[in-house]
């Protein structure tokens, strides 16, 4: 049985954390990158100022903690010598506790500011090929805009639709042959999975007569793909008759 589908690959979209200007594009479209490689740098000026403010606030809070700690120690000593009232001791303790709480808040604010700054350097989360870079250096990108798309380094697959009459005979691991226009040789594949939910045949998948039939989406991994095989390319998948003989 021959089924028509299209080549798919895992796409990783990288987005901007804020509306900023692109100051660097260290890689070009088509380049292979590894995890951690820089793809895009956004202008970090405002984010760096945010970090500086958070660092200054944390330093001031630490000073306040030191002062309240010394005041508490002094008040405890005076209270033991009956030179300070219980109310003074409680006030000093509350001041020290409040300063300690503010220190935790300031530390969290600094961590958040540093994380925000790091988001202005957009790196590859996985190994793959840079498929798209929609913006150029010097352009201001909107917040949450996709600034790069990676094709992950894993096996591409073909999305096909299996007729309901055949799905009972097809399971993960079944062998298949994949043919793609422009590639002379046939490619080897295997069925990754078959959907449990049926749907009506997509308009391009089968003949006019068969479009009203229920089908099940399936994925066929390509075991020996060409390195530059792109998603969206039409493909045909042939499943050996021995697998689907009973269904046919």
Quick tags:
OB fold (Dihydrolipoamide Acetyltransferase, E2P); single chain; four-stranded antiparallel sheet; Helix Hairpins; elongated; 31% helix; six-stranded antiparallel β-barrel; Elongation Factor Tu (Ef-tu), domain 3; alpha+beta; 248 residues
List the helices and strands and how they pair.
Elements: E1 2-8, E2 11-15, E3 20-24, E4 32-33, E5 38-42, H1 45-80, H2 86-118, E6 121-123, E7 128-132, E8 140-141, E9 146-152, E10 157-163, H3 164-167, E11 175-180, E12 187-200, E13 214-222, E14 234-238, H4 241-244
Antiparallel strand pairs: 1-10, 1-14, 2-9, 3-5, 3-8, 4-7, 5-6, 7-9, 10-13, 11-12, 11-14, 12-13
Helix pairs in contact: 1-2
User: Number of helical runs?
Assistant: 4
Q: Total number of β-strand segments?
A: 14
- Taken in chain order, the helices and strands follow as EEEEEHHEEEEEHEEEEH
What is the C-alpha radius of gyration, as a whole number of Å?
A: 31 Å
Helix/strand/pairing category: alpha+beta
Distance between the termini: 8 Å
The residue ranges in which pLDDT falls below 50 over 5 or more consecutive positions are: none
Number of domains: 3
The whole-number mean of residue pLDDT values reads 89
| Major beta sheet summary | 6 strands, antiparallel, barrel
- What topology, given as strand order, has the largest sheet? 1-10-13-12-11-14
What is the share of helical residues?
25-40%
The proportion of residues in beta strands is: 25-35%
* CATH architecture group name of the largest domain: Beta Barrel
Question: What is the CATH first-level class name of the largest domain?
Answer: Mainly Beta
């Amino acid at each position: 049985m021959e089924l028509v589908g299209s080549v798919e690959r895992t796409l990783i979209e990288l987005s901007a954390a804020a509306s900023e200007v692109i100051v660097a594009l260290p890689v070009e479209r088509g380049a292979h990158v590894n995890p951690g490689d820089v793809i895009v740098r956004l202008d970090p000026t405002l984010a760096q100022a945010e970090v500086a403010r958070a660092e200054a606030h944390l330093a001031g809070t630490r000073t306040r903690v030191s002062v309240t700690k010394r005041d508490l120690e002094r008040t405890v000593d005076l209270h033991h010598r009956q030179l300070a009232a219980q109310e003074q001791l409680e006030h000093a303790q509350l001041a020290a506790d409040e300063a300690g709480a503010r220190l935790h808040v300031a530390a969290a604010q600094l961590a958040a500011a540093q994380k925000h700054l790091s988001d202005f350097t957009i790196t590859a989360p996985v190994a793959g090929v840079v498929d798209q870079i929609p913006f150029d250096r010097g352009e201001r990108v909107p917040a949450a805009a996709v600034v790069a798309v990676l094709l992950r380094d894993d096996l591409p697959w073909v999305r096909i639709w299996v007729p309901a009459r055949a799905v009972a005979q097809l399971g993960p691991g079944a062998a298949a042959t994949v043919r793609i226009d422009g590639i002379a040789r046939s490619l080897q594949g295997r069925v990754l999975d078959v959907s449990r939910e049926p749907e009506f045949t997509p308009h391009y998948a089968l003949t006019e007569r068969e479009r009203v039939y229920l089908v099940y989406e399936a994925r066929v991994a390509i075991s020996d793909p060409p390195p530059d095989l792109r998603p969206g390319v039409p493909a045909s998948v042939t499943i050996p008759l021995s697998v689907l003989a009973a269904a046919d």
